[in-house]
């Protein structure tokens, strides 16, 4: 808050001191508040809109899973080449990181994920997935198109950028921890803030949704092998039955949240996988159970993980079985930076009207964007897609999932505006710090 007050003050001062800036310059104090609508108008131009739609459909037809986004990144690189935007490739196997602006600090990042899901598309349309068993059912095809749209807008206004916008095309959001790999590749070393968005079919088009603080849960996956001793199903005394042990494990896991968690601290433990047995008359040797757990703080995530391990091994032992528990993946909660929330609110409000910028409740879903937020102040928001004219859209990960392509300009303009105005404000803050420094001298 204090920071923002200073920013407004500095913008005011700059406005007074630099009357020579052309009046339509996006980066004069008067023009700053016009950037969002200026960028949106640019994004809505038929050439830019059709270009984004074309990119999105091309990627939709050829969905690729995490760390296999080779054709997708080839397309991205070809477009960045045409725009004359420098980039680093490969980053985290299949990722691309582009740079628009001065090439100097401050750096602000905008991010799109690129991967598809291992599922069969059930929507019959002209640009249906051409790859059996793979589909862009989470909108990451649209995310890529919007980030390229933002690249085009920012390139158009490149001379006026007060620093560098880092375009992060990230692989493997759904599985495999792509964000973590991008960080490990040291691709975001000097970045001061990062923004990300997700399309949301159940919220109205033309509106955006977010909140400061925790917005999506952290958590992880678990998988346990419960081993007993197989044998004849009619002679149970000669076997050690892992099916009964696994059943008790599943029931006991329910008690972690119902009996151990603070009712005001939202948590989930779900067993979503149960594999064992194959015959009516055979007790199997072993059973596999697995699932996911979610919570809003890193501490609670670690606590759940420990209790899941203890409950599975303990309860299996009660039934004379052995259990080994694995935690193949875990992820932190998505926590939005407070100052960036103010920034988002202002920029999105200027673009859409403040009544279209809505606060939302946190949800138990997760995003690997949270890995960026552990290292860099970050902000994640949702872009509504619901338009009553088209009827009810299906949720993410449904085989009937569809994109309302009308929102592509909005997403690209939001990306570009959040980044461009952030750079300006951050630059002002640097001036402010330098000013203080000189005063002290
Ligand atoms: C919904 O779709 C109709 C028809 O394409 C369009 O005129 C209208 O502006 C859309 N509404 C929103 C909020 O996008
Ligand atoms: C459990 O592990 C112990 C120690 O390795 C082993 O002696 C025992 O046979 C195992 N029990 C089952 C049911 O696998
Ligand atoms: Zn998804
Ligand atoms: Zn997604």
Automatic annotation (TrEMBL):
Domain named Peptidase M20 dimerisation: residues: 226-313
Protein name: Peptidase M20 dimerisation domain-containing protein
UniProt similarity note: Belongs to the peptidase M20 family.
GO biological process: auxin metabolic process
Keyword GTP-binding: no
Keyword Transferase found: no
SUPFAM superfamilies in alphabetical order: Bacterial exopeptidase dimerisation domain, Zn-dependent exopeptidases
